[in-house]
Amino acid sequence: MFEAAELGRKLSKEDFAAAAPALRAEMLNLQIKLREANFPVIVVFAGVDGAGKNESVNLLNEWLDPRWVVTRAYDKPSDEERERPEYWRYWRDLPPKGRFGLFLSSWYHTPLIGKAFGKIDQAQMDKELEHIIRFEQTLADDGALIVKFWMHLSKKAQRSRLRKLEKDPATKWRVGPDDWTHWKQYDKFVQAAEHTIMRTSKGHAPWNIVEGEDARYRSMVVLTTIRDAVNRHLEARAAQKETLAIEKEIRAKKPAQAKKTVLSKLPTILSSLDMTVKLDPKEAGVVLQEQRGRLSQLHRKIKDNGLTVLAVFEGSDAAGKGGAIRRLTSALFARDTQVVPFAAPSSEERAQHYLWRFWRYLSRAGKVTVFDRSWYGRVLVERVEGFCTDDEWRRSYDEINDFEEQLVAHGIVLVKFWLHITKDEQLRRFKDREDIDYKRWKLTEEDWRNREKWDEYEQAVNEMVERTSTLTAPWTMVEANDKAYARVKVIATVCDALEAAVKKHSK
Amino acid sequence: MFEAAELGRKLSKEDFAAAAPALRAEMLNLQIKLREANFPVIVVFAGVDGAGKNESVNLLNEWLDPRWVVTRAYDKPSDEERERPEYWRYWRDLPPKGRFGLFLSSWYHTPLIGKAFGKIDQAQMDKELEHIIRFEQTLADDGALIVKFWMHLSKKAQRSRLRKLEKDPATKWRVGPDDWTHWKQYDKFVQAAEHTIMRTSKGHAPWNIVEGEDARYRSMVVLTTIRDAVNRHLEARAAQKETLAIEKEIRAKKPAQAKKTVLSKLPTILSSLDMTVKLDPKEAGVVLQEQRGRLSQLHRKIKDNGLTVLAVFEGSDAAGKGGAIRRLTSALFARDTQVVPFAAPSSEERAQHYLWRFWRYLSRAGKVTVFDRSWYGRVLVERVEGFCTDDEWRRSYDEINDFEEQLVAHGIVLVKFWLHITKDEQLRRFKDREDIDYKRWKLTEEDWRNREKWDEYEQAVNEMVERTSTLTAPWTMVEANDKAYARVKVIATVCDALEAAVKKHSK
C-alpha cells in the first residue's frame, strides 16, 4: 500500500516555482466558487511523524483565504470535552457549508495510536473505526466533501530525518527519546495504518497516500488533489441538483394525502393509546406535588453523582408541552437546569448538518437539559412539509439511533416524550386560545395549516416511534387530553429514569 | 423498537378479500415493469419463529410469477460451501437484474443466533454485522433494491402459539423441546435482534418490522411494503439516469487526455521499474527448469495440506501473460489446476454486480486457479474506456480490497502479477505479430486503439497498485521486456508464496 510513497519523488525548485503562481490563483478562485456551494470541505491529515502534516496545513492556510478556513488539532480531551460524548468536539468544529475545515490528529488519532502502541486490541480498534465510518458517512450523505491525506515516510527516511535533526545543534532539541521509541514501533504503526486506511477508505471519503519526504513534491500533491476533488464535487453536486428537481416534479404529481388502504383503519401506536385516561381533579394536585417532591430529591442525587439528564419533548400542537415542561423544571434546581427550545434553525445552523445544532446544546455533566422539540423535527415537520428529501428523512432514523446511542453510551440519561391529544381536543384548545386574550399569541396561522395535515403527521409519528423507540432510548407516549394526567406521567417517568440511573451508577 | 409490532393488529377476512385482487394485479404488473429495470430486488426475511417468515415467502411465490423469483434458505454450509469464503454462497445466489431474490435465514442467521445463544461475544457479533453492512452497501451501490423484514411475535404470543400447536393432536409433533428452549431465550434473542436491526438498518437497506400474529395482516404489510419500495426505486433510478447523462455530458466536454502537470514527469511505480533486467539466454533455461521443479514439489505439499491458490495475471497488451501462465501451469498437476480467462462479460454476468463473475469461479480447496485478467478490469479497461462511471471505479478499490481480504482470511493463497513492458517493446511485438503468420490472430484493431491510450492506462495502473497493494494482498510487478526473466520471476514468486503458506499451515 505504501510502495508508491517510497519512490523518492522530488520536485525541483524551478519546477515548483514555475507552477506555483497559477495554482495559487486557482486555489483562491476555487475558494470563491466554494463559498457559493452548499457543502463544506473536510480535509483530514494523518500519517508518519515528520512527513509534513503540519507543514501542509500551514501551506493551505497561507495559500487560501484564511477567513474561510477552520483549522483544528486535538490533544487530550479537556474537562469540557470529557463531559460530553467523544465526538462532541469534532461535531462542534465542523466547518459550515462553503468553507474548508483542516483537521490534524483528528478522529483517527485514538484508534491508530492506541493499536500501534498496544493500548487497545483489534476488536476495540475495529469498533472505533466503525464509529469513524458512520461519522464520515453521515457527513458525506449530507453533501460534505471529505478528503483524507496519509503522509508517508519510509522507516529509513524517518531515521535519516531524526539523525539529521540531531546533528544540527539548532534542531537537536526537537528530537526526544520519545521520537526514537516511536521509530522503533514503526512497523506496528504502519500495520495499524494500513488496516485503518483499508477499513475507512470509502468512495465518499477516500484516503490519498502522499510521499512525504520532499516538501515541494508533497505540497504540490496535496494542493492539486484538493483542487481536483473540489472541482469534481462541484460538478457532481450540480448534477445532483437536477436529480432532486426531477424527484420533486414526480412528487408534486402525486396526491398530497397518503392513499387510504385496507390497512389504514387498523390500530396504530397512536390509535392504541387510551385517550380517556384522566386524574380526578381532587387527587391531581396531591399526586403532582408528591412526584415533584420525589423529583427534587432525586435531582440532588443526580448532581452528587455527576449524572447528565436530557429530556426530549415532542408532541402535537397544543398538546401542552410547555405546561408539562414548566411543571417539571420548576421542581428542579434552576442553576443546574436548562430548557432549550428549537424552532426554525438559524442561518448558522442551516449551514451545518441538521444534527449539528443538537450536538451544540449538549450540556456538561451534572446538568438537566430539556429540549422543547428536537432532532425529531427531521422526521416530523421536515418530512411532512417537504423541507427535506425523501432520502434525507428516511436515512435519518439510523442517524438518530446512532446519535442517541452515543449519548446513552456516554452515560447521559435520555428520556423522550410524545405528548398526544385527539383531533377534537386540539380543536377545543385552538378555539380556547382564540377566545382568551392572554392565550391568543400562542395560536398562529401555521397551527391551522398543520391541523389540515393531521393524518400525515400521525403517520409520521407512528413511523418515528416504530423506528426510534429502542431498548437504549425508548419513547414514552403521554396521553395528554387530561393535562393533569400528562404532567404527572411526565414527572413520574423522569423520576423512574433517574432512580434507575442512580441505582446503576452507585453499583 | 417492537412496540408497534405488539398492537394486536388483525385484518378481517372480508377486508383482505376485498383488497386482494387489485393488489395481486399490481404485483404482477410491478414484476413486468421490474423485468425491464436495471436492478435486482433482494428481500430478506428474519424474525421470531412462527411469525410468518416462511408463509410470507410462500405467498410471494404464489402471487408473483415464480419464473422471475429466486428463493433461498441456508442451512449448515455444505462441503462445497465450507471450502470457499463464507459469503460465496450468498454471492452465488444473488438474483440478476430485473428479478426478485427472497432470502430466508440469510446472512443474518449466524450473528443473530450466535449472539442470542451465547456462542459468540459482542465483538464477534459486531464484526459479523460489519461484514453484512459492507456486503449490502456494495450491492446497493450497484443499484440493488434491498428490503428487509423482521417478523415479530411477542413473548406471550409465541407461547400461545406453541401451546395451541401442542393441544391439537394433528400439529403436536411440530413442537419439540427445542422450541421451548428457544422460547426461554426470547429476551436474549430480542435484545440481539434490536442490536442487529439498529446496526444494519441503513437508508439503502432498511428493516421493516412486521407484527406477525395475524396472517392476513402481515401478508398485506409485506406485499404493500414491497410494492411501494419497488415503485419508489423505479422512480429514483429513473431520476438517477438523468444525473448520469448530465455527468457524461460534462465529461465529454473535457479533453480525453489527462492534463500534463508539473508532477507528470516524476517517477511512478511503473517508471521506477528497471526495464533493462534480463537473463543470460544460456542460464535462462536452466533457472526456469529449476524453478519449475521446485513448483512441482510444492504443489504436492499444497494439495496434501488442502490449501487453495489463486494467481491473478494482469499486464499490458503483448506483455506475455499467456506465455508466463503456460510455463506456470505446465509444471502443475493438470487435474488440480484451472486457468480461467476473463474477457467481456456474458449477458448473464452483465446482469449481476461486476464482482459476481469472479466469486463464481473461486475453486474448491486444494486447487490452483489462474485468472487471466480479473476484477481489476474495473479500474483498468472499464475506467479508461468509460464503461463505468467515475463513482463506480473510484469506489471499487475498496470493494476489491474487501473482496481480497475475504479470500485471504479464508486461507486462500493469493498472488497478483502485473506484467509490464515498455511502449517501444510493445510496438516491436505488435509488428512481430503482424509479420509472423501463426501469431497474426493475436493482434486486433483493439490492441492498436488501446496503445493510443498508453498514458491513461499507465496512470490507471499506477493508481491501482497504490490503492490495492496491501500487506494482505500485495502486487508483484514483473519487468517483462525479457520474457525469460519474467517467466522465472513469476514462477519463483509463486513458489515463495506457496512455501510461506505451507510453513504457516504446518505450524
Note down, in words, how this protein is organized.
The structure is a homodimer of 507-residue chains. Chain A is α/β, with parallel strands linked by helices and 507 residues long. Chain A has helices at residues 13-36, 53-63, 79-82, 88-92, 109-116, 122-141, 155-167, 177-184, 186-200, 215-253, 281-304, 321-329, 347-350, 356-360, 381-384, 390-409, 423-435, 445-452, 454-468, 483-506; strands at 41-47, 69-73, 100-104, 145-152, 207-211, 309-315, 337-341, 368-372, 413-420, 475-479. The longest helix of chain A is centred in the middle third of the chain and has 39 residues, at 215-253. At the A-B interface, helix 1, helix 6, helix 9, helix 10 and helix 16 of A face helix 1, helix 6, helix 9, helix 10 and helix 16 of B.
Distance between the termini of chain A: 48 Å
**What structural class is derived from the secondary structure elements of chain A?**
alpha/beta
Give the overall silhouette of chain A.
Answer: elongated
- The spatial strand order of the largest sheet of chain A comes to 2-3-1-4-5
Bin the strand percentage of chain A: 5-15%
Order of helices and strands of chain A: HEHEHHEHHEHHHEHHEHEHHEHHEHHHEH
Instruction: Using the 3D structure, state the CATH architecture of the largest domain in chain A.
Output: 3-Layer(aba) Sandwich
Number of helices of chain A: 20
Please estimate the helix content of chain A.
Answer: 40-55%
Low-confidence stretches of chain A: none
Q: Whole-number average pLDDT of chain A?
A: 90
Going by CATH, the homologous superfamily of the largest domain in chain A would be P-loop containing nucleotide triphosphate hydrolases
The most extensive contact between chains is: A-B, 67 and 68 residues
Total tally of structural domains of chain A: 2
Indicate the CATH topology of the largest domain in chain A.
Answer: Rossmann fold
Could you state the oligomeric state of the chains shown? homodimer
How is the biggest beta sheet of chain A arranged? 5 strands, parallel
Rg for CA atoms of chain A: 27 Å
What is the tally of beta strands of chain A?
Answer: 10
